[in-house]
Amino acid sequence: MGRPNQSPVLITHFSHTHPLRLTAAVDANCAACALPASPPSYSCPPCGFLLHLSCADLPTLLVHPCDPAHGLGLLPRPPYPDGAYTCDACKLQGWGFVYHCAACGLDLHTRCAVAPLTVGHPAHPQHALALTFEAPYGEGKGFSCDMCGRGGAAREWMYRCAACEFDSHLACAGAATALAYGGGDRGAAAVGASGGGGRGGLVESVAQGIAVGFVQGIIGGGGGGGGGGEMVVGEGMVL
Ligand SMILES: [Zn+2]
Ligand SMILES: [Zn+2]
Ligand SMILES: [Zn+2]
Ligand SMILES: [Zn+2]
Ligand SMILES: [Zn+2]
Ligand SMILES: [Zn+2]
């Protein structure tokens, strides 16, 4: 997804003390998302430390509709003694980077935090599925995923068509692979409009108008430098 010829060869990143170099193949998992490397990546080989290009470019502050009162800060490791957290979106554990709101005790995987606000899916082609932060069936009631048939927790995020009461886990709707951070593009990254990057079930995004603006320079000095800055999920949404 990245554009290696536009990426600087050497970067500094707040999550690691040594400079990170653009490298082809390193046998390590990404420190941010814990998924295997997909070369080229940024790495510090002596430490076995690696970041995907897109993960190295994650904004350090995220404004998200799930917690509109607070910005979510990007932490390089969970703020808990056991070094793990439970993602409030997908309810799965995480060990790498986390988007965290201390006031709410909110923790999100980076991949969940940038999940598109709407997706299209061939299992429900007639309508777009909207990212929904809790099941609408009453206090403490979960949902049943219409993709896989298994249950979801009450406060678990889901993709949903309200008109048809079609509910889906994030992963079942392909959200986990529908990432489009912009791959190093400055200015704007379109989440959910990765055009052709339809692996994992997101065949075609209905949400092609969703643009996520990178507001450079609010945090980290910006000005065309490395990653960082603030990202507003859902801002500039045009349907
Ligand atoms: Zn990664
Ligand atoms: Zn190192
Ligand atoms: Zn998650
Ligand atoms: Zn909060
Ligand atoms: Zn499911
Ligand atoms: Zn529908």
UniProtKB/TrEMBL annotation:
InterPro entries noted in UniProt: C1-like_sf, DC1
DNA repair recorded as keyword: no
Pfam families: C1_2
SUPFAM superfamilies: Cysteine-rich domain
Keywords linked to the UniProt accession: Repeat
Residue ranges constituting the DC1 domain according to the UniProt record: 14-56, 70-113, 123-173
Coiled-coil portions: none
Protein name: DC1 domain-containing protein
The organism of origin for this protein: Vanilla planifolia (Vanilla)
